[in-house]
Design brief:
Number of strands: 11
Radius of gyration: 16 Å
Helix content: 10-25%
Strand order of the largest sheet: 2-6-5-9-8-7-11
Number of helices: 4
Strand content: 25-35%
CATH superfamily: PK beta-barrel domain-like
CATH topology: M1 Pyruvate Kinase, Domain 3
Distance between the termini: 48 Å
Shape: globular
């Protein structure tokens, strides 16, 4: 695999690629169900500075740095519950509608069901050689998301009827350091036991 890092400058999405709510809903219904227990890592993206993205072939995740070189670790007091942003690949491809997935600003894109039912807060997963945990931080669309993918897409990911699906994604924190690369397996290790 190439060691080349692809750098992408982003600001706004292409308005001609923004999908309507009806198109997004139809596209979501047409997606195959994502795997629940074992999937794969499709993309690794580092955000070195505002509005810049670096697509990496591999990286080493750590509890201290998250994804090394990402702007998360440059903050004065980085919040461990917001260490890694994660999105389901199929949903991201639907919303991007041909644009680069790096435009989202998420770190990891995975082929795995990220819904609340499948990955409740506290679930642990192995990604390549690293272990991560789902955090309670909500991952919502914002004004940047709106500028890149349109108002319909923003409503689509934040709407109450589908909010439990985590279409905008979720946050992970790194529990055990390890190497990851595009194509790495993603395996659910544990899920919290529901309170009786």
């Amino acid at each position: 695999m190439s060691e080349v890092t692809t750098r992408i400058e982003v600001a706004r999405g292409e308005a001609t690629r923004h999908l309507s709510t009806a198109e997004l809903e139809a596209g979501l219904r047409a997606l195959p169900p994502p795997p629940k227990d074992a999937g794969r890592l499709a993309l690794i993206v580092r955000r070195p500075v505002k509005d810049a993205r670096e697509v990496l072939p591999r990286a080493r995740l750590s509890p201290e740095a998250g994804l090394p070189g990402d702007n998360w670790s440059h903050k004065p007091a980085p919040d461990p519950t917001a260490q890694l942003t994660v999105m389901q690949t199929g949903v991201a491809e639907l919303i991007a509608n041909g644009q680069s997935l790096a435009l989202f600003g998420d770190n990891l894109f995975v082929d795995l069901d990220l819904s609340v039912a499948n990955l409740p807060i506290g679930s642990r997963l192995r990604v390549g050689g690293a272990v991560v945990e789902v955090t309670p931080m909500p991952h919502d669309g914002c004004s940047k998301f709106n500028a890149r993918f349109g108002n319909d897409a923003l409503r689509f990911v934040n709407t109450k009827p589908t909010r439990h699906l985590n279409l905008r994604g979720i946050y992970w924190r790194v529990v055990e350091a390890g190497e990851i690369e595009i194509g790495s397996p993603v395996q659910v290790l544990s899920r919290p036991t529901p309170a009786a």
